[in-house]
Specification:
Length: about 220
């Protein structure tokens, strides 16, 4: 399981001048019991996320947290550059044509547990929490929690905002199937790029791919 260990608010810019304002340190337990950690940077608009390769390996999750709290701005500047180079080097023509993207979506629901339900978490979920979604064929995507917007009136539903990250069409389908399973039987309303989408995996994947093909939007915009 991937754990969000540390969050920092910093204004950083990559080589192309894109601004990033949230720094997230994640860790994942390895087969030997150690914890591998990496750093992710979320752009100021929320539509882009870049990540480094493994930055450290610690014997415990607490060790990763201790390591992360001691990092200085200069370290994160270098880490953003490594993440930027990793993204540029890893982007192939086939990946660009295969339907990958980062798309904002939101769920309208009166259920106060909806965030934990969608994120597959038992405990409290905080902004930046990432849920890896993977099928047997290793088509891996991720759902990232952005925020919850409380209603202006008590009888109105909450708005739960997320990002869907999928490197390929196969990963988009995996995410769509997961969302359908999670939301089936609820009274939730799913919106992708502010357009309501039926709670059906085919409709969801079509909306995700169409949104990815139309370019970035601003996650969290009201």
């Amino acid at each position: 399981m991937t754990e969000l260990v540390h969050e920092r608010w910093l204004e950083l810019r990559d080589r192309q001048g894109k601004t990033y304002r949230r720094v997230l340190v994640y860790a994942e337990q390895q087969p030997a019991g150690t914890w591998a950690a990496w750093v992710e940077f979320v752009s100021a608009s929320g539509e882009a996320v870049v990540r480094t390769e493994r930055e450290t390996t610690q014997s415990s999750l607490q060790g990763v947290a201790y390591w992360a709290t001691g990092l200085q701005r200069t370290y994160f500047e270098g880490a953003l550059d490594r993440a930027f180079r990793r993204r540029v080097q890893g982007r192939t023509e086939s990946e660009d044509l295969d339907g990958g993207g980062m798309v904002s979506f939101r769920i309208r629901s009166a259920d106060p547990r909806m965030t934990a339900h969608v994120m597959g978490a038992r405990a409290t979920v905080i902004p930046g929490h990432r849920r890896i979604v993977q099928d047997d064929g290793a088509a891996e995507g991720a759902i990232i929690y952005v925020r919850t917007v409380e209603p202006a009136l008590t009888e109105m539903p909450r708005i739960y905002e997320f990002l869907a990250h999928f490197p390929s069409r196969a990963a988009a389908m995996t995410l769509a199937q997961r969302l359908e399973e999670d939301l089936r039987g609820t009274e939730a309303t799913l919106e992708i790029r502010r357009t309501e989408v039926a709670l059906d995996s085919e409709a969801i994947v079509t909306a995700l791919l169409n949104a990815a093909g139309s370019g970035p939007d601003v996650a969290g915009r009201r």
